[in-house]
Design a protein that fits this description.
heterodimer, A: 110 residues, mainly beta, 6-stranded mixed beta sheet, 5-stranded antiparallel beta sheet, 11 strands, 58% strand, globular, B: 114 residues, 7-stranded mixed beta sheet, 4-stranded antiparallel beta sheet
């Protein structure tokens, strides 16, 4: 079993819709959770971090964490074509030991 | 604040050669991690250095090695290159203290082995 699991997609949504990206992790001791966006040919860029159960909002992005279910999600409201990218979920289980999911490719259609 | 800087951006090497990649972390960051990214395998963790000591290590052969200098700059070396080493090599820095510090990635070095 992989430490972090993501659906590889592609996830296709129309422009203006809500995109929902999901991630599950295996280590119950995980303490911090991150979402990165990676455009094709570029390096990952940090877009959200979350450390406690519940929702965290930043602009059009909302991260949700449920530690009991070992589940992290990212919602993108009012999706734009520029949001088309691969989204990586990352979990920090032990001290500075990060595990990454394989990423979900998001396509936002104009 | 300047971001993570990786050099060179592109490299073309021949099988059997060796290569050294360089990474300068964000000022004040003491942790540097290295990742290999390929289309089929995603992001694979190579190793992490903190204050010149290797703190974590992934499952890569001994041909892959690294080091960190007193100014937190890091180098990664791959010896006896194989075709399968062709990948995007990413360096990421963090404060390395506390679980809430995220990784910040450089632009990467794209290595092609022919």
């Amino acid at each position: 079993q992989k430490e972090v699991e993501q659906n590889s997609g592609p996830l296709s949504v129309p422009e203006g819709a809500i995109a929902s990206l999901n991630c599950t992790y295996s280590d119950r001791g995980s303490q911090s959770f991150f979402w990165y966006r990676q455009y094709s040919g570029k390096s990952p860029e940090l877009i959200m971090s979350i450390y406690s159960n519940g929702d965290k909002e930043d602009g059009r992005f909302t991260a949700q964490l449920n530690k009991a279910s070992q589940y992290v999600s990212l919602l993108i409201r009012d999706s734009q074509p520029s949001d088309s990218a691969t989204y990586l979920c990352a979990v920090n289980s032990n001290f500075n030991k990060f595990y990454f999911g394989s990423g979900t490719k998001l396509n936002v259609k104009p | 604040k300047a971001g993570v800087t990786q050099t060179p951006r592109y490299l073309i090497k021949t099988r059997g050669q060796q290569v050294t990649l360089s990474c300068s972390p964000i000022s004040g960051h003491r942790s540097v991690s290295w990742y290999q990214q390929t289309p089929g395998q995603g992001l694979q963790f190579l190793f992490e250095y903190f204050s010149e000591t290797q703190r974590n290590k992934g499952n890569f052969p001994g041909r892959f090695s690294g080091r960190q200098f007193s100014n937190s700059r890091s180098e990664m070396n791959v010896s006896t290159l194989e075709l399968g080493d062709s990948a995007l090599y990413l360096c990421a820095s963090s404060s390395g203290q506390g679980v809430i510090s995220p990784l910040h990635f450089g632009n990467g070095t794209r290595l092609t082995v022919t």
